[in-house]
Amino acid sequence: MAVLLPMAAFGAKRPAGNYRVMSCNIRITGLADDAPYPERVWENRRDLCISTIKGKDPDIICLQEVIYDSYSWFLKKFGKDYYHFGFEGPEMDPWTEGYHFIGKNVILFKKSRFEWVSSGSYWLSETPTIAGSMSWGTNRARHCNWVRIRDRKTGKEFRVVNTHLDHKSDQARLEQMKMIVEECGQYSKDMPQILCGDFNSGIKNAPIQYIHSDEDWSEMYEDIHGKEEAGFTCHNFLGEARGKGRRIDFIFHRGPVETTYAEIVKDHKGNMYPSDHYFILADFRI
User: Fold this and answer.
1) Cα separation of 194 and 161, whole Å?
2) Contact between 248 and 201 (Cβ < 8 Å)
3) What's phi and psi for 170, nearest 5 deg?
């Protein structure tokens, strides 16, 4: 297993006010395209997915592409120690199988570190309160989940936002990004906010350029490694054999947040990967 180690040991206890967040697209389960490849089937790779995440000991986990079976597995493995928010079921989707299925953007956060202050969800459309609603030519309904949490020791509060933008239309992705930035912008600049997700956009595409143009936002991996292209995060189960390409998974932040470490997690076991995406990890302090 290829493992990249940070500056401090993963198991080390982080001081109050210091946190680790992971953004993980775990891939929709049950896809016919994956069936011929045993190493891609969820039931075969789910333990590696869990162990990869647990091995990094994150305080906050933002998942994308969660549906019923993967959600149940995560609750079995994380439910004792983490709060979980953001799964209502994809029953409002007119398609009930295949890649059209609406995967949920679940947020988990440690019970030992945080109090749950509030939470919410909205749909990335012109009618954000209507579940499953779509606008701007988006290929499928997309949504955004958020939680507001309080550090049990310091009393500091911050907001975590998790999303997954459309995978077909760049115009839809731009409008969806504008909507998220506007919604987050209603809060004071003193309110720390963390925005995680699969944005289906690279640094040269309009959605990422849009949030980069807002001086209130920064990106955690770029804080540490610079703004150059970091290469594929969606590697299609090929890992480094995918070659060079664009990163589409990001962790942005707004407000009094300082990034102290960031990593693209490339753990794997032989030809088996936790997902078709590399996960993104970052340490930060408020």
Assistant:
1) 6
2) yes
3) -65, -35
Q: How many CA atoms lie within 13 A of 222 on its CB side?
A: 17
**Residue labelled with tokens 């290929």:** 139
Residue 89 to residue 104: CA distance in whole angstroms: 8
Residues 6+ apart with CB under 8 A from 22: 53, 56, 58, 60, 61, 62, 265, 279, 280, 281
Q: d(Cα 175, Cα 182) in Å, to the nearest integer?
A: 10
Q: What angle do CA 82, 149, 49 make, to 5 degrees?
A: 35
Q: Within 10 A of 114 (CB to CB), how many other CB atoms are there?
A: 22
State the pTM of this model: 0.93
- What lies within 8 Å, CB to CB, of 213 at 6+ separation is none
CB 149 within 8 A of CB 115: yes
The pLDDT tens digits for 7-37 are: 444 446 788 889 999 999 999 998 899 999 9
**One pLDDT digit (tens) per residue for the chain, 286 residues:** 333 344 444 446 788 889 999 999 999 998 899 999 999 999 999 999 999 999 999 999 999 999 989 999 999 999 999 999 997 665 566 666 655 567 899 999 999 999 999 999 999 999 999 888 999 999 889 999 999 999 999 999 999 999 999 998 899 999 999 999 999 999 999 999 999 999 999 999 999 999 999 999 999 999 999 999 999 999 999 999 898 899 999 999 999 999 999 999 999 999 999 999 999 999 999 9
Q: Which residue has the tokens 């143009």?
A: 213
CB of 263 closer than 8 Å to CB of 284: no
Q: Strand, helix or coil at 211?
A: helix
H or E element at residue 142? none
